[in-house]
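User: If you would, consider this record:
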Amino acid sequence: MADRSSSNVVPLAGRGLPPEAPASADPATLLAACRDRLAHGLATVFAQHLDSANDDFLGMADRATSLEQQQLYFAAMDFLTGHGQLLLQQFRSTYVAQFEAAVAALRGTTVEGGRASQEPRELSLIDTDDFERDLAIAKLSARAACNCAQQLTALDRRFAALLQLSRIAQDDNPLHPRALFTTMLDALGALDVGEQLGLILLQEFERQTSAELPGIYADLNRFLAEAGILPNIPLAGPQRALRSQPLDAADAHPPLDEHRQTAASAPHQGEHGNSDVFEQLAQALQAAATQRPAATGQFHQGMPPTPRAAPSQPRQQTLDIAELIQALTGLQRGGGDVRQLPGLGASPIDPAQNDALQRIRATPMADWSHPVDALTIDIVSMLFDAMFKDPELSAAIRAELAKLQIPVLKVALIDKHFFSERRHPARRLLDLIASSGLGRSEEDEPRLIERIRAIVDGVVDGFDDDVEVFARQLQAFEQFLDEEETRARGKASKVLGELARRDRREVAERRVEAVITEHAHPEAPALISGFVGEHWRQVLVDVFIDTGEDGEDWREAVQLMDDLLWSVEPKLTQEERDRLLTLLPDLITRLRKGLERIDQETSWDSFFGQLIRLHMAALHREGVNDSPPAQDNVEDTTTAPASASASASASASASASASASASDDADDAETDHHLRLARALEVGAWVEFKSVRGTRKTLRLSWVSEYRGVYLFTNRQGDNALTLATTSLANHLRQGSARLLSQDPLTERAVSQVLERRTDPET
């Protein structure tokens, strides 16, 4: 393990970075250097911006709408003023420990005191504070990941290579922004900062470090490349965010030049879930070109763009990346005479038409561009052609996506990671716009299109070369859809609750019988067996219907049954007797409340009088007389077991019937593809239903019965509820009156279609 002696040093502005590791350094030394450089760089940036953070808090306090908010912002100012350096020290030491634990977990070992040694928490309840904490970290890390997409892609590969792993998930990568923000929140917690104040300080930490974070990651990439870790992959971007750089061919787009050098020589790595998607798409385009005649100066509707062969005559002129971006920006904005833009000629090009990119490819501008840039135009044109043919897009949404052709082309020219990174903000915006149209009624679609149009116009008007424009518009659109989703959940909640209760009611008796059998004590007195079999059974059924097996009420009801059975057993030790005396008051109260729940409180007095005798006998370690002491209660205590036995017999019969039915269904599933498909559906899947009259509606799977195999489908607004049994849904799928829509994002589907042309050029 790396030496932690420096973990208590507060990194301040002006202090140098940790010493460079030699190129021959071993992996442990390089890991420690990465850890220290990242922690040092981020802490130094925040230290430099402490005054700016306090200014932010002062402004927010002035604008606060409540006294409580104002006090929180003032408390944040006071904390940074008095404990800012201590926080940075705590951040560094916490990050060192968590980094080491994460690396140990990736290597399959554990580190004492780190996160890797903690017990899994999948089965624990999540309280509100934990949910808010996780949500805040997720939002901040997603935004940071978008800003640093280029740098993180390269860093993920280098870090995995350093650990000799094929790949590392973001949640497991201690260099990922999520790990940094989690560390900062843990450091605040270690200093006894409250949850709300901690979240406010975390947001300010992200805000003050966001501009420099891409540069810090770029430095890490450079450091590892110079140490011999994958030195041939691109260094992934400028030192700072792109928006702070001028649009200049020499220094604004260094990743592009690196892609030009490596695109043709990068090895093929299989399917398109990797960083060589651009090369694979280029191969697909070349394969398609060999199967079709080349275009000869005339545009052919529906034909894929064909790569041009090298001209036999010298080019009239050469466009560098800056000139190409500038020309495309002029066409994108529609300002001035497009005929004056270099290489566009006299052919009119409407940037909002579906064929805009194909027409651009037929202009001299494409031939005058660098070969990789010309190839990029071809590929983006093919992707949009595939997207426009997607059957799940409405005409109105297709028209809005068409306006993004040129902005997306510019993104692809600047950043080849666009093709391989699903999380790229430009790709995510395209995907979200496409998926937002699913499940819309004719009355609701105009409102959506109006919102999409505003988002698209924001990109067209604001995008020069800063992809942050896409991130901002993506965030605005996500907020719009989140608000819709909240309203839809509110509408559907009543229906969902009733369906869940009905679902549990169908199986309640059988589940309760199984639990009673599992927890039964064979030597329990007849009084207790009768009470459990008759009265407490009803309590368990009622609780199960209300909350299910995951509810706290259910766990308490089952525990109370166990406590009752244990309470009448002979107590052989003083410890057991003390426990019983401590347990009894609460036990009696909870048992009586349980009977009140099912309106059986009149049965309590006679039962309680006999229960006292059993408890006295248990305290004196005496055997329990199994016969009832009072004649007037004989019927109650003798018929209850009979009733329980009858119920058990009925439940066993029902269970056998259900098992036989389940067995039949299992046999059907082995041979019926559509039944297997129906059972594999998960909440969130979209299905298109077609009525006998030919009308179609697209509904989302909103709820799946846990016990009965019933599905609830709703539209995006939570209306038009439709419930179907599994077999009914399978029949719809079999007959073609239901169609499962693809759950892959639009851009992923388009990439797949283009790649398929490599093996089947007729598709």
User: Anything to note?
Assistant: The mean pLDDT is 75.
